[in-house]
Design a protein that fits this description.
Elements (H helix, E strand, L loop, with lengths): L22 E2 L3 E2 L4 E4 L5 E6 L3 E3 L5 E2 L8 E9 L2 E9 L1 E2 L7 E2 L9 E4 L5 E6 L3 E3 L5 E2 L8 E8 L5 E8 L8 E4 L9 E6 L3 E6 L3 E3 L5 E2 L11 E5 L1
Length: 233
C-alpha cells in the first residue's frame, strides 16, 4: 500500500498423475467375442488393430479373427486429466481338420476313420458310434453303420472345430442262380445268375467263367455236378 506495508498468503497446488488400466477376457478362439475393459472415467477412446475404434467404456468385438490380435489402447479422462493404458489381445486360429475313411465297404469289413493330428478328438456316428481315438476303427461293418461320422478336434490353443466323413457300407448282393438242368448228353448246359455286376463261375471238369450267363456245349457226364458263382455288387 502507500505506506509500504505488505501482506502474504498461500495457495496449495496439487499436480495429479492420472492412471488407468486396460484388460481383456482372452485369449480367444476365432469367432468368439472380444471383451475390452477399463475402470470408470468420464470419457473413453479405444483404438486397436484392424482400424478398431470405440468410445464405450467396455466395448466388445464380435466374430473375432486372428487379424484382430494385437495391442488395444484406451485413453480415459477424469475431469480435465487424461490417462492411457494398453492390453494385448490374442485371437487363436481354429483347427482345420479333414476327416476321411477308407471305404466304401462290404458287410464284415473294418471301417477305418482318419483325421489329422491335433490335441483331442471326439468322434460320433451312426448306431451310437463314439470314440476319442485319432483314427478309430469299427469291425464287422453292417449297412446300419453307413452315414456321416463327425469328429470334433481341439488344438493346442484349446480351440475346436469339426469335420465330417460319409461312410458307405454296401449290402451283400442277393444272388439268383439257375440252369436248364437236367440236360441230355451232348446238349448245351445254360447257367444263369443275377444280382450283381461281376460274376465268377467254377464247376466240374475245371470249368471257370467270368460271364454272367455262361454255357457249356457238348455236355458229358464229367460236366455234371455243382456249379458255384461268386457275385460282386
Amino acid at each position: 500500500d502507500a505506506a509500504g506495508c505488505k501482506s502474504t498468503t498461500t495457495i496449495n497446488v496439487t499436480v495429479t498423475t492420472p492412471t488407468t488400466t486396460a484388460s481383456n477376457t482372452g485369449p480367444y478362439c476365432a469367432g468368439q467375442t472380444i471383451q475390452l475393459n477399463t475402470p470408470a472415467g468420464t470419457t473413453y477412446t479405444w483404438t486397436g488393430p484392424s482400424a478398431f475404434t470405440s468410445n464405450n467404456q467396455n466395448p466388445t468385438i464380435a466374430a473375432s479373427t486372428a487379424a484382430m490380435s494385437g495391442v488395444y489402447t484406451v485413453t480415459t479422462t477424469t475431469g480435465l486429466c487424461k490417462a492411457t493404458a494398453t492390453t494385448n489381445v490374442i485371437v487363436n486360429a481354429l483347427p482345420t481338420p479333414t476327416a476321411s475313411n477308407t471305404g466304401p465297404y462290404c458287410p464284415g469289413n473294418t471301417i477305418q476313420l482318419n483325421v489329422g493330428a491335433f490335441t483331442t478328438y471326439t468322434w460320433s456316428g451312426p448306431s451310437a458310434f463314439a470314440s476319442n481315438a485319432q483314427n478309430p476303427t469299427q469291425t464287422n461293418a453292417q449297412t446300419t453303420n453307413s452315414g456321416n461320422y463327425i469328429v470334433t478336434v481341439t488344438n493346442a490353443a484349446g480351440c475346436t472345430n469339426t469335420a465330417v466323413t460319409n461312410v458307405i457300407v454296401n449290402p451283400t448282393p442277393t444272388v439268383v442262380v439257375g440252369s436248364n438242368s437236367p440236360v441230355c448228353l451232348n446238349s448245351t448246359i445254360n447257367l444263369t445268375a443275377s444280382g450283381g455286376t461281376g460274376y465268377s463261375w467254377s464247376g466240374p471238369n475245371a470249368f471257370t467263367s467270368a460271364v454272367q450267363n455262361p454255357v457249356v456245349t457238348g455236355a458229358a457226364a464229367v460236366n455234371a455236378g455243382v456249379y458255384t458263382v461268386t457275385v460282386t455288387s
